[in-house]
Design goal:
binds beta-D-ribofuranose; Ribo_hydro-like; 38% helix; single chain; two-stranded antiparallel sheet; I/U_nuclsd_hydro_CS; 310 residues; purine nucleosidase activity; Nucleoside hydrolase; uridine nucleosidase activity; binds calcium ion; globular; alpha/beta; nine-stranded mixed beta sheet
Length: 310
C-alpha cells in the first residue's frame, strides 16, 4: 500500500477522487489537506470532513491549508459547477469538525516524517499548499515519492482559452511546483477532458444505499452543469483520473516535458507551457497526453460502487 496524502478543494470531482482513493487497496491515505479553490477553504475543509464521515473514515486527519493564492486574491467560489455547499447540494450530511483545526502544511510534514516509506502526494486543487510546504521545508518535498498533479494542459483550457482552473487560480504557486526537484506527473485537461463519464456508467450505484444515492445526486448536479452549457449530461472526472493514474500508471500515456506557467500576461495567465522538445533533466516532470477512457471508467465506477455497498 502506497502511503498517500490528498491535497484537494472538494469540489464534486475532488469528492469522487477521494472516494476512489479510499476504495483502492493500493493506497493508504494517511491525510487529507485542503486549499481554497472550487470554494472557500472553510468549505473545502468542512467537505473533507463530511466525506470522511460519510464513509466512516474519521480516523484520517484533515489539515486546513491556504485560504488564498500566494500573491493574488482568491477567485469567487464556482457554485454553479459544484453547488453552494461545494458538494452539489445533494444532502451529504454535515460532519462534526474537531475542536482544534489541524494545519495542512504541518500535517504533511508530520505524515512524511512518520512514514518509513516515501509518500505520494496527489494534488487536485490549486498548488498553494505545495509551494508553501517547499518554502518552509524543502527537505520534506525531497522525501516525497512523487507528486501527481491534476492541473494544466498542453493544449487548451477550461477557465480561459489556454488556462486550466487549478493552475489559473494560483499560477505563481504552480510555477514553483513545476520547478521542484521531485518526480511530477501532470494529469491535465489533455487527458481529463477525454475521460468522459456518462450517467450510464454510474448505473451500478443506483442499487446502493443512502451514501450511494447522495453520491449519485452530487454527481447529477455536476452533469447538469455540463448539460446547461448546451452539451449532454456527462462529467469529466478530472481529479479521479489523477488518483487513478497514481494507482494504475498504465491508464495514461506520459511524456517527459518541461512545464512553465505564465504568470504575467492577463490574457494567458495560468497557461502551462508544456515543452516536450526540451524536457527537464532526468525526466522529473512527465505530462499525460493520452488515456484509456473505457478502462478508466470501469475502474472508477466499479471500485466506488463496491466500496459504497460494502
Ligand atoms: C479542476 O478544477 C476544479 O474545478 C476541479 O475540481 C478540478 O480539480 C479541473 O480544471
Ligand atoms: Ca479539484
Amino acid at each position: 500500500m502506497k502511503p498517500t496524502i490528498i491535497d484537494c478543494d472538494p469540489g464534486i470531482d475532488d469528492a469522487i477522487a477521494i472516494l476512489l482513493a479510499f476504495a483502492s487497496p493500493e493506497l493508504d491515505v494517511r491525510a487529507i489537506t485542503t486549499v481554497a479553490g472550487n470554494t472557500t477553504v472553510e468549505r473545502t475543509t468542512a467537505n473533507a470532513h463530511r466525506l470522511l464521515h460519510l464513509i466512516g473514515r474519521t480516523d484520517v486527519p484533515v489539515g486546513r491549508g491556504a485560504s488564498q493564492p500566494l500573491v493574488r486574491a482568491a477567485g469567487a467560489p464556482i457554485d454553479d459547477i459544484h453547488g453552494t455547499d461545494g458538494l452539489g447540494d445533494a444532502g451529504i450530511p454535515p460532519a462534526p469538525e474537531p475542536e482544534t483545526q489541524r494545519d495542512a502544511i504541518q500535517l504533511i510534514i508530520e505524515t512524511v516524517e512518520s512514514s518509513p516509506e516515501p509518500v505520494t502526494l496527489i494534488a487536485v486543487g490549486p498548488l498553494t499548499n505545495i509551494a508553501l510546504l517547499h518554502a518552509v521545508r524543502p527537505d520534506i518535498v525531497d522525501r516525497l515519492e512523487r507528486i501527481v498533479i491534476m492541473g494544466g494542459a498542453a493544449k487548451g483550457g477550461n477557465v480561459a482559452p489556454t488556462a486550466e482552473y487549478n493552475i489559473w487560480f494560483d499560477p505563481e504557486a504552480a510555477q514553483r511546483v513545476f520547478g521542484l526537484d521531485v518526480d511530477i506527473v501532470m494529469v491535465g485537461l489533455d487527458v481529463t477532458q477525454k475521460a468522459i463519464t456518462r450517467p450510464i456508467h454510474w448505473a451500478e450505484l443506483e442499487k446502493g444505499g443512502l451514501a450511494s444515492q447522495q453520491i449519485l445526486a452530487m454527481n447529477a448536479f455536476y452533469s447538469a452543469y455540463h448539460a446547461s452549457r448546451g452539451g449532454e449530461e456527462l462529467t469529466m472526472q478530472h481529479d479521479a483520473l489523477a488518483v487513478a493514474a497514481a494507482i494504475r500508471p498504465d491508464l495514461v500515456t506520459v511524456v517527459p516535458a518541461r512545464v512553465n506557467v505564465e504568470c504575467a500576461s492577463p490574457l494567458t495567465v495560468g497557461t502551462t507551457v508544456v515543452d516536450v522538445a526540451n524536457p527537464r533533466e532526468g525526466g522529473r516532470v512527465r505530462v499525460a497526453l493520452d488515456v484509456e477512457v473505457e478502462e478508466f471508467n470501469e475502474f472508477l465506477v466499479s471500485r466506488i460502487a463496491r466500496f459504497l455497498s460494502e
